[in-house]
Amino acid sequence: MTIKVVYCLTRKAGMTRAEFQDYWLGQHADLVKARADAIGMTRYVQSHAYDTPMNAGMAGPRGGPDGYDGIMEGWWESEEQAMAALTTPAGLQAMADLLDDERRFIDFARSPIFMTREHVIY
User: Fold this and answer.
1) Strands, sheet with 70-76, edge to edge from the N-terminal-most edge strand
2) Can you give the residue range of the structural domain that contains 86?
3) How far apart are CA 108 and CA 86, in angstroms?
4) CATH number assigned to the domain comprising residue 103
5) Taking residues 89-117, what's their average pLDDT?
6) Alpha carbons 101 and 26: distance in angstroms, whole number
7) Whole-prediction pTM value?
8) For residue 92, what pLDDT is reported?
């Protein structure tokens, strides 16, 4: 069964949303792409938040927290396939490289990350 990591990203203090998203798309994405084979990731998607009155219209009635600066989704064929790739020396090094780069632009304390299984409804 396909699994997916979902990472709800919040930028580091002192960065504008534009600076954060430019770095994430212009620098970090290339690092992920270069390490995709080592970590076994089969698909990688960045969804960048943007300012629109629709945000307040959706969040207001729900009383939810402030939104994120973006969402990252990464897919693997299965948990077994992911673990097989991520625990190799190359996979461990690739993940260390990515984590090191994430320290430059992500506020880890405000950026939850979790594994999911999709249930496509339509």
Assistant:
1) 43-48, 70-76, 3-9, 113-116
2) 3-116
3) 21
4) 3.30.70.100
5) 98
6) 12
7) 0.90
8) 98
